[in-house]
Design brief:
single chain, alpha/beta, nine-stranded mixed β-sheet, 22% helix, globular, Trimer_LpxA-like_sf
Amino acid sequence: MGDSGERPPAPLARTAMAFVLAGGRGSRLMELTDRRAKPAVFFGGKSRIIDFALSNAINSGIRRVAVATQYKAHSLIRHLQRGWNFLRPERNESFDILPASQRVSEHAWYQGTADAVFQNIDIIEDLAPRHIVLLAGDHIYKMDYEAMLQQHVAAGAEVTVSCMTVPRMEATGFGVMAVDETGRIVDFVEKPADPPAIPGQPDLALASMGIYVFETRFLIEQLRRDAAHPGSSHDFGKDIIPHLVARGGALAHRFETSCVRSSMEASPYWRDVGTVDAYWEANIDLTDVIPGLDLFDRDWPIWTYAEITPPAKFVHDVAGRRGEAVASLVSGGCIVSGASARRSLLFTNVHLHSFVKLEGAVLLPEVDVGRNARLTNVVVDRGVRIPEGLVVGEDPEADAARFRRTEKGICLITQAMLDRLA
């Protein structure tokens, strides 16, 4: 077969830039975000929440990435510097960390999501990407952004908004897109009591995922227009997107057409782990025989900063003092010493001492659990030292008096809470 000499069209991701908004506090995670921004919160045994958006960008073929940070950003910035410094300018790649630094005004930090991009227009213009893929840095999902870029260009849209299909009455907590038969967004309603249905699917609605694709020059025009508007809150969801919907230039992209699933994943997976309950559930769900999210998918790896740790170790083998873990995830550097863990997730360098019993426990890195402790349905913050004999998860009133206990009975434990008991 002869060679025509024509090159196939290059992937759009090659000339796109991913701009990740990672400045959110995540106050509903309570004390988990006292010292770190929500995107820097640990997830899944060795990752941080932001690793999912960044991994999606890299796996999609995007090689220009920027991350805007603001709230308590040190932990996040340190993670980004350690784990995401492999993008190299000499390979036409870039990775920029953009803290709020009053670059536009001496009095203005980032005032909203749109303002966070507006304040960095000069950096975007220097890199000159053809398209901007705007991402939230605080959701758990796997997605190929190339498919969304292709739809955006083919349709000639001003903005394409990624949406997930949800049962209509479960959409009351989201921004909901009303669309016509062509997928054009005709209305955008924030947290509606009666969400608009998808045409032809009366029981379903389209909820915004906070993922947007723009042609770069058009986005810059819109950001400058919005910045000059004194009544604007300078937010994409509240200002930019509704304006473009009213112009008729907004297109909905169905998440199910671009979500990445291994053979083990039955349905599209997206989670906002924005509460302690949701965070615990999403982590514990990973211990299922077939979890909704496949972290073992080698075709779409979740990149992160990987510490050099020894293998996990299980010691002692006598009745009542056997190091064991059942239906659990145990990360590198862990020592399970005569302790039992069931349906639990242990992050890096966790140490369980003899006669400890865990059930439904999410232990962040470097937690040390003293002898005879019993922990049920807990999230334990990084570096906490659980004293010998502590019992949590068996007496609701005692738990609520000592720790942060949710309506669903999950206890969040921090070192400061334990120190107050001493």
